[in-house]
Amino acid sequence: MEVDMDATPTQENLTTTRQHNGRAHAKDGRPKKPKSESKLAAVVRCWLTSVLPTLPGLPLSAGSSLLEWSIETLVSQAPKRWVIYEPMVLLPTGSFSFSAGLPASTPPVASLTSPAPPLWQNVLSAVSHEQQDQLWRDILLALSPSARGSGKGDIHNAQLTHLAVNEGIPLHQEGKEDAENILRSPTGLRPLYGDFGPATTESGGAPTTVDFQRAFWVSTKQNGLYQTWAPRWSMFSRGNIKEKARLLDWKHGDANDRWAVDLYAGIGYFVFSYAQRGLRVIGWELNPWSAEALRRGAARNGWSVRVVRRATDLARPTSDAVFSNTRVDDDTDEAGDTEDTDNDGVDDDNESPEIVIFVEDNQHAARRLAELRAAAAESSSSPPSQKLGEVVHVNCGLLPTSRDTWRTAFDVVVGGPSTSGSSNSTERTGWLHLHENVGVEELTSRQEEIQAMMTTWAGEMPGTCKAIVEHIEQVKTFAPGVWHCVFDVRITLLSES
């Protein structure tokens, strides 16, 4: 379950002008109904009322106007939004005056004897750990949903157990300003309450099965599909829900023996949309934590999935890694075991997994897909389930740009098999979904630039190849005046059979 709440704003201080006996009035003169206080604000108010008068050095005696003023000010500064990813509550950046790199024990920035109301960091540094934990526990208890079911044994957790403050994804690796954070690791996450698992892997390197087992995992449901991830190790973007829904609504026609390729699979943002529409999916993901999250999420949604991450398995012929029915399920501690998961725990003798993810750089994608094409040509008698069929979607979902993979994506579509038929010519269509951050004023020029690139590439192909940028989807704002955009490129090939 995903819940995004807006709390009701409170008054900034007790000196706010109150008209008509303390109640605001509508234009017609009737008093407005006072807005109810959010659950979180109510908890914060109760905690402050109990704690503030006990703090040494603060002239906040019970019943004093300064105490009331301080409480109202601090409540107004408390978080007004939160998101629930069961069993965790995630607060927005800056909640309770926390900021990246500022520990809770930071000394107060103002004197506790000042007549001004104390700031949140002043208060949190003055109270005991037990008092802090009581606030966090009270918040979790107040925001915990009642146990309820949605049928088929789907019961939401009635008690939320973990609380954290979100932070932006850093551009560089922690402690390495010259090393880009290419794994998009959320190292700025600030746990407030609950065990989030170890902050480092057991070996200090690639995660093992034991590391996955020790980690804290959360989940949410969007568009009817579960997604799972470890918040200490991989990110989650709620804003992609619109793009996921768009792909779910895409008209694929007959999905039989059709494939989608995701060059930035992540935790399964778009992989799951394709799988839900009946496409088989092959993808690449560099972050082993995200790949493990995808594996868990796919299994929860009922799809068979294979994650190829062990060095020996990555070295196997690509067709074996994708189509082999040999199940690797030894639960060893070696980093990066290949794992299969399907509905009944046993691989079907005639079926390979619906989703296959390679934990490696997607620069290997072109080679691997070419190998699959060659293997299919050599084994024309093999059943369709054992061959890479027509690729109808290629997703390039990296921001700020996925440009480095656009040629690979183009070649994946145009290099596929022709659709069989009785006529003298065959036509097939595939789509590229190219993600990029673009300024609002640059949308038209960027579309023209991409169109020129696609036209050049299409002209290099034998037969008739057309590549048209048919649509720009503005997914969400990335920064003021900048949109996360997806350029949909329709590729149509007409070849003589």
Automatic annotation (TrEMBL):
Reaction(s) this enzyme catalyzes, per UniProt: 4-demethylwyosine(37) in tRNA(Phe) + S-adenosyl-L-methionine = 4-demethyl-7-[(3S)-3-amino-3-carboxypropyl]wyosine(37) in tRNA(Phe) + S-methyl-5'-thioadenosine + H(+)
Biased composition (Basic and acidic residues): 25-37
Chain residue ranges for the region called Disordered: 1-37, 321-350
Subcellular location(s) of the protein: Cytoplasm
Composition bias type Acidic residues, residue spans: 330-350
Family annotation (InterPro entries): MeTrfase_TRM5/TYW2, SAM-dependent_MTases_sf, tRNA_wybutosine_synth_prot_2
Source species, domain of life: Eukaryota
GO annotation, biological process: methylation
MF terms (GO), sorted A to Z: methyltransferase activity; tRNA 4-demethylwyosine alpha-amino-alpha-carboxypropyltransferase activity
Record bears the keyword Methyltransferase: yes
Domain SAM-dependent methyltransferase TRM5/TYW2-type: 153-493
Pathway: tRNA modification; wybutosine-tRNA(Phe) biosynthesis
Ranges annotated as biased composition (Polar residues): 8-19
Main location per the UniProt record: cytoplasm
UniProt keyword annotations, A-Z: Cytoplasm, Methyltransferase, S-adenosyl-L-methionine, Transferase, tRNA processing
Known function: S-adenosyl-L-methionine-dependent transferase that acts as a component of the wybutosine biosynthesis pathway. Wybutosine is a hyper modified guanosine with a tricyclic base found at the 3'-position adjacent to the anticodon of eukaryotic phenylalanine tRNA.
Family the UniProt entry places it in: Belongs to the class I-like SAM-binding methyltransferase superfamily. TRM5/TYW2 family.
Name used for this protein in its record: tRNA wybutosine-synthesizing protein 2
Organism for this UniProt entry: Sporothrix stenoceras
